[in-house]
Specification:
128 residues, four-stranded antiparallel β-sheet, alpha+beta, rod-shaped
Length: 128
């Protein structure tokens, strides 16, 4: 009886190990790519939110609080539109809601046009 000592791996074991490695690396690459893409989208939304807050803070200073539409851009990527409409007087405790302000920021992304929209109300105290 001849005894065979097996040293090393068989070809089949090596192929199975390489296949498992290739599948694992493919899944990891897909997850990594998706997370990078989502980070870019989050960055874009964060910039749009920051731009909208800065432009809304100009309301009443650089942008008049009156009925109308205004638009502009922040840089080549982001554009904004503001629509101000008067409200019928809604008052409570000397606070009168005067205007409804719709503010939208638009930009182009890898997956087409994206936007955020903010609606706020402008108050007036004491003049019903």
């Amino acid at each position: 009886m001849v005894k065979h000592n097996q040293l090393g791996f068989t070809l089949l074991e090596t192929l199975v190990a390489l296949s498992i490695l290739a599948i694992s690396l493919g899944v990891i690459y897909q997850i990594f790519g998706t997370s990078l893409r989502n980070m870019q989208y989050a960055k874009e939304y964060s910039h749009a939110q920051m731009f909208s807050e800065s432009k809304l803070s100009e309301l009443g200073k650089g942008i008049p609080v009156k009925e109308g539409s205004f638009e502009g851009d922040f840089n080549q990527k982001y554009t904004w539109k503001m629509n101000i409409k008067p409200l019928s007087s809604i008052s409570e405790n000397d606070v009168v809601l005067k205007f409804r302000v719709n503010f939208m920021v638009l930009w182009n992304s890898n997956r087409g046009q994206r936007s955020i929209e903010i609606t706020t109300y402008r108050l007036s105290v004491g003049d019903a």
